Amino acid sequence: MSIETELKLQIDPRHIARLRGHPLFKRATRRLSHKLYSVYYDTPDLDLWHAGITLRLRRTAGRWVQTIKGGGTVAAGLHQRHEFETGITTPIPDFSAIGSGELAAHFASPQLRARLKPMIVTEFTRVSSMLAPAPGVTIEASIDHGIIKCGGATESICELELEVKTGPAWRAYQVAMQLLEAAPLLVEDRSKAERGVALHLGTRYKPLKAPPSPVAAGTTSNSAFKLLVLTCLAHYAANQRGMLAGADPEYLHQMRVALRRLRSVFSTFAPLFPAAVLEPPVVETRWLAQILGAARDWDVFVAETLPPVSTRYAQHPGMAALTRSAAILRKAANRTARRAVVSARGQGLLLALGAWINAETWLEAFDQTQRAEMQRPVSGFAQTVLDAALKRVRKRGRHFANLAPPELHRVRIAAKKLRYATEFFAPLHDGKNARDYQNALARLQDALGSYNDALKMASFAERASRGLRGAAAIEARGIMLGWSGGMQAVGTRHLMRVWKEFRTAKPFWK
């Protein structure tokens, strides 16, 4: 059994010729074109899929190849999976060719074998070239163009696969960043099998929230940093598709959360790094986070903040005009966000982070003492980080009842960093104690967030009403200003309650 390592990227069919014109393809040692017909087997209940296994029979050049894939990871488009491949004589699964071991055990049941049926079919033309981007590195670049079929449902395929044959995995990212110079590419976190399963189920993908922290007892600081960054990248990429389709605004929200968490990983682990090492990813993620943040702010204003006011004053012409103007500004902000995500800079950021985290190039800037610190269990570092983050929140929250809005904003930022840090390191401690503390912290952050939205309300109303003329527009601004003041008053009273609750909560890491 081998480990397949490949980077998947979507490409528009219109840009294939431009991609092939890149110098990397012109210098390719070989180029082959062939039609591939694949059949994926599973039970009607998708038993193999739920076990994390795919069984594929592929016909190419007049012969059949049986491939079984299982396990592995996907992050920032890089798919790494265990793969067992063997030639067979007929287009029917050959269980005797699987051999022995853990993989064979999944197919040992006669009942399972009897229920296996063809579920998904893919038909596409593959043009593959062998690239040699650096000495000792070979990468097979395959452009697949065709369809996925499941029953009567179909979906088009047009993607670039960069499979690392020799050399480190991060080289695939490096090649992808070079190819971005020739044509737009989009990081793809789904395999063809996963897309086929979605067709079979007839279900739409839903916005995905952040998964649980991968940090466990005994994890080193270096490994914890890598795992957390990869988790954030996977969270971001999993919501990219829905966000670009302009679907549920929750997709954009989750992408923004993924970037916030990623930036929090950088700030949490910053004490272990020389400042210059983290500066490039911090700057680039800040750029993208600001653009997505602006779009998310307009989503919240139009979809959550404004409706109660516009409903209450439904007959007011100024409020109707302000609402229409806000909707236009929201569309513009979302359009800007989508452009940033698909841009060479946006996709290049994902690819650069994927390369950086896989190559661990930060270690080159460390001295022997710093390297030793990174290889120690993360638990000791976590204790120090959590203590410092809690101290910062308490310090900024002194005399809480008398804090002005800018000071409350500083408390909110500190509370957010503490919350993410507790989520990162919660698996190192008792689950119930961690959950209880995190719930109290989440209520504080939510209350501070609502208060912040109330503060922003007047500013967004002012921006939405620019260009509107007449007494009605002036009245609408006044209505929004008054409503904002009322929300702030209510929010202040609620804040005091949740602050006291948070102050009495016992930190789970103590």
List the helices and strands and how they pair.
Layout: E1 2-10, H1 16-20, H2 23-26, E2 31-42, H3 47-50, E3 53-60, E4 63-75, E5 78-88, H4 102-106, H5 110-115, E6 117-134, E7 137-150, E8 153-166, H6 170-179, E9 186-187, H7 192-201, H8 221-244, H9 250-269, H10 275-312, H11 317-342, H12 344-359, H13 368-374, H14 378-396, H15 405-425, H16 431-465, H17 471-504
Antiparallel strand pairs: 1-5, 1-8, 1-9, 2-3, 2-6, 3-4, 4-5, 6-7, 7-8
In short:
56% of the residues lie in helices and 20% in strands. The chain contains 17 helices and 9 strands.
Strand order of the largest sheet: 1-5-4-3-2-6-7-8
- Name the helicity range: 55-70%
What percentage of the residues does DSSP assign to strands (E)? 15-25%
- Main sheet? 8 strands, antiparallel, barrel
Radius of gyration: 26 Å
Structural class: alpha+beta
Counting DSSP E segments of at least 2 residues, the number of strands comes to 9
Helix-strand pattern: EHHEHEEEHHEEEHEHHHHHHHHHHH
Per the principal axes of the C-alpha atoms, what is the gross shape?
globular
Give the termini distance in whole angstroms: 45 Å
Mean pLDDT: 92
> Which stretches of 5+ consecutive residues score pLDDT under 50?
none
- Total of DSSP H or I helical runs spanning 4+ residues: 17
